[in-house]
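[Q] Does anyone have a clean structure-token version of this?
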Amino acid sequence: MVIIPTFNINNNSARFSQNIDLGGTIYNLLIYWNNRTELWFLDIRDLNQNPILTGSLLSPNNPIFANSRANQSLPNGDIVLIDLKNDLDNVDLTFDTFGVRYQVVFYTDEEIANAAVVS
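[A] Here you go.
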């Protein structure tokens, strides 16, 4: 499991980028807030800034790569927005709660398989 830093809590930024190791490969992640829709999105690029996956909605407990498994450029695993309160009946994902109540996490395929066996 890799907890992906969310810089929103540090500098109140609506857009931030970082390079991060996901499953042994370095990717560039761009996380951004859309004021019109009032939603958070994620873009994944390689280190040459070539898009791998763009405009992915960050929604609590919904795996980002679920509909993109055919894309061989994606890391072996998935990114999920976790609700630290574990309260899916009262979702409150806003500009201010991102990075505080909600955390972006990468799970390897092995971690996902082990969790499926346990649950």
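[Q] Thanks! Anything notable?
[A] Helices lie at 8-11, 109-118.
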